[in-house]
Design brief:
The complex is a heterodimer of chains A (about 300) and B (about 260).
Chain A lengths: L6 H19 L12 H20 L5 H23 L11 H10 L1 H35 L1 H14 L8 H7 L3 H26 L3 H8 L5 H39 L4 H10 L3 H29 L6
Helix pairs in contact in A: 1-2, 1-3, 2-3, 2-4, 4-12, 5-8, 5-10, 5-11, 6-8, 7-8, 8-10, 10-11, 10-12, 11-12
Chain B lengths: L1 E5 L4 E7 L7 E5 L6 H9 L10 E2 L2 E2 L7 E4 L11 H12 L5 H14 L15 H14 L4 E5 L7 H17 L5 E6 L2 H7 L2 E6 L4 E7 L8 H6 L1 H23 L10
Parallel strand pairs in B: 3-8, 3-9, 6-7, 7-8
Antiparallel strand pairs in B: 1-2, 4-5, 9-10
Helix pairs in contact in B: 2-3, 2-4, 3-4, 4-5
Classes of the chains: A mainly alpha (about 300), B alpha/beta (about 260).
Amino acid sequence: MILKFNRESWGILFLLAVTFVLAAIVPDAPSQAVAENGIFLGVIIFLAVFYLVQLYLQPENNRAVTDIFLLLSALLLVWEITLGKLALLDPLLFPGPARVFAVFGSDWQIMLAGVASSLFILISGYLLALLIAVPAGLYIGWRKRLFDVAYPVAKAVSPIPPTVYLPYAIVLLPTFTASSVFLIFIGSFWPIFVGTVFGVFSIDHRLINSARTLGLSDHQMVRRILLPGALPSILSGSLISLIISFITLTVAEMIAATSGLGWYIEYNHQFANYYKVIAGMILIAVVVIVIMSVFDRVQQYVLRWQQR
Amino acid sequence: MQYGNNGSRYTALSNVNLTINNGDFISLIGPSGCGKSTIIDIVSGIREPTNGMAMIDQKQVTGTGPDRGTVFQDYSLFPWMTAFENICFAIEHTSPEYPREEIEKRARDYLELVGLTRFPNAYPFTLSGGMRQRVSIARMFATDPQVFLMDEPFGALDSLNRIYMQDLLLKLWSEGTERKTVLFVTHDVDEALLLSDKIAVMSPSPGRIKEIISIPFARPRCRKSLSADPEYIHLKSYLLSILYCEMLGEIGNPDTEWKERP
């Protein structure tokens, strides 16, 4: 298998190589110096390998991947030169890449614990919302009378940011974990619910008639017809919910947590450790990218019957 | 059988009287908006008539049931199930007593009958319009109902595919030990003449049956010799003239058009 290289692919490897050499040989500006820049070098190599693997897995149609990596490696190089080597901006607020990536070496335990606690809260709240909102939405979308009441209410209530419930959540629920699970549940409930109700409502009526000619029971109707028919809309609601959950989670953690991704940033902000703040942002970005790509995969699988 | 349906704003059907013998192939023909599909909806049990009723074997139709199989124009199949799953799903619900292997065997057999052995795992959106209708027909035959209800099943197909599907339908229909009763909606005069024992010509606003015409040709019918038969030509021009009168009436009375659908 020979990798298909075009000009952009070589450009990416060239940019990464220049960054690597700069990082390895040229000393950093004194204000940006770190004892150990091995992790930064590792990140550069990882990016190069990751790109080549992508190229190998998707020999065709990799233009978007190539463009993204081109942008990424160019940014990395600019960052390294302007801030790492030349320290053109305030070194406290704008640290160089070597200093930022070194944080992943020194703080990895606390970061890992943060990822675990954040994901636990996120997944519990989100799954709870899915488990309740989808069946409720299917049933209410199916009953015209309930729909007429529930849909306007849901549309009115859903834009309220879930963080407004924060004061009561903190007072009424015993732990931070419980109250943030509750917040995420509330925040992701409405978009999934509205998506489900709307999905049921927008199923082609002729398909429902076709199902009715088979004499389905109510239960079978919901499970075999309404649920799959509403899935495209359920998934778009779920995506909005996922984004809202993440925002809610990080905000809640910044206010009241003792662990987690948002807490890590807020905590280091209080000590003016801006290089750690940036490391925390990168960590969040990576977690978000992973979650979103899992979501994409799931969506592609469950909607495989749909014309794209 | 008697039907009647008074909608809130318009009368879709009024005073429709149609008796269908067991094993008859009846076509409903008429301009759009004359209530052909409403009749199918009532017989299939999707809609309840506001007045009158539909009866099958002296029993009044209440709701949908496995004794009637329906094929619609282009939306009978569930897009989230493969061809095979669509057929299995229908058999599961119309004959719940069958064991799983029997259901799957039947589904495979009927897919083979309509020549789709190679596409059991295809989702409907990957199939052509003709293939989708073949799956729908396979599904209807696989559920083995007493009465077939077909609402312009070939209306969305090109003429070559339509010829193929008409022959396929006739073949499957006449192969069984006893012929099923078919109520077939179409707006194609040739199609009605080729397939039916009787043709009910309908007229709109309110929908009613204008005339019932018996089709005398012996079965099996041959498309080629039929079209040269003077009797056929006579019947065709007669049917066309009735329908044409209806259409002239429509044009003369433009108010009727917007009443078609509520």
